[in-house]
Amino acid sequence: MKQVNKKIILIGAATLLLGFLLGRMMNGSSATEQPTTEVEDATIWTCSMHPQIRQAEPGNCPICGMELIPVSGGAEEEGSDMDIRMSPTAMQLADVRTMVVGSDAASMDLRLNGKVQVDERKVHSQSSHISGRLEELNIDFIGEQVRKGAQVGRIYSPDLVTAQEELLEAERMQADYPQLLEAAKSKLRNWKMSDTQIDAILERGEASGTLPIYADQGGVVLKKKVNEGDYVSQGGILYEVADLSGLWILFDVYEQDMSWVKIGSEVTFQVASLPGEDFTAKIDFIDPVIDAKTRVAKARISFQNSKGRLKPEMFVTGLVSSPVGSKESKLTVPKSAVMWTGERSVVYVRTPSDKGVSFQMREVRLGLSMGDSYVIEEGLESGEEIAFSGTFSIDAAAQLAGKASMMNPEGGKVMTGHDHGGGTVPTAPISSNKGVSVVSSTKESKAQIATLIENYLTLKDALVSDDFENAKKDALALKASIASVDMSAFQGDAHGQWMSAKKELDEILEHAAHFSDIAQIRSAFKPLSAQMISLTKTFDPMKEKVYEDFCPMADQDRGGNWLSLEKEIRNPYFGSKMMKCGSIVEEID
Prior knowledge:
By secondary structure, the chain is α+β, with helices and mostly antiparallel strands. The protein has eleven helices and 30 strands.
């Protein structure tokens, strides 16, 4: 019995010992793997405006109060290569989306402005066929509808009385001189009297001093030339009438855009008075001669207006899509994928990695602007995957990790140049008109450009102050100033530069009168600033130093530039919400 108990005790002890050893082994394995999992799952949180801020937990930036964003999935981002890693969670929270770029038959989307005009082939003049005094005029106002053959007036003429008396005398002498009667009738027919009217005179047996006037053509009265009681000569115009069942739409085509517009090109156009409705027609004529002052030619389409929906002088906006090149496909990317510093254009390319999702900055050379896309001439290949959303978050992560970024192409730790109350450190070297080609321009042209810049700066100050009413007035004032520019002051290359800029400015401010809130004005302010910066650098019109500033958060983190006479940053894109957000990227002397 004792031996049995000893065996049971030994077996129990052995079991406990074996269990203890297995437990140690299992616990040791878990203790070894757990820290690795924690490292892999660790996420660094930073501020998109202040990449020097690094926290292990989400929260708000201690400098500007903005919500922190995740930028990477672990310490492996600090590798020696120029790739920047982002975990799937970080990509989702930062709204990073990618696409595979490919070559396709690219097309140029050219926007045109025009007006509805009367078809010149359907305009007629109603004239008087005899000299005399208008005893009666049945055309009361411009725009009145006239029916063909309707009596529109009555004219008194001494010559008419004489001709009728000759007719009656010729009838009495018809037996001896029949040819005289026919001659008298022919004279009256030349004054557009019908045979019925002539027979009525013969039947009546006496002359009438007045002659009714009948409409030769029907339509809408465009111009009224005379009033009742006026004396008119033979062939004198009484009024002009047009048939509006068919109209012309004339679009302005600038000299530099002529190659994109051909006879037969299809135009999709809209009319402001018919919102939400698109019309399509083909160009059937292009002016063979360009206007010497405006440097534009007219492209015409014919429009059937049988229902009377369009009216002459209505404004029209159209879109022509023309293929870029006849056969060669072009590589295109969304504009949201491109980060532009003024001198360089970069995209973030997704690179193969066995450690997660990685991106690397790639400098590209842009081609034509194609509406919402750019043609890529160099830097990308078909089939590569790029980020088209959340690119600024990737760039912030690259700056944080000391990798190549938009403002720091060589890599290395940098501080951002966006002051939210914590001081400003420039992100890029300040240049003085580096690489700018100034055209030869006259004193008059410089003065006109300077006036536009001054109007633009007034608009900028209104946006800084969050003043919608004054901003709208300033936008309209700038639009009026652009329209009043004397183009004859621009000669040679300067003329071409100005006409190109004017076209863009007209499109940007076309609907300035309909801005309903300050957000709409700020949306237009970015392309407006781009044109004003270009004009400032091209014409060098200012007598004082001008600063080109940049805010990376404008336009939904795509960034936006503007001009200022002050060295202090005062942000027009956000106003009082983020007054100090931005940095100086160039001093224009």
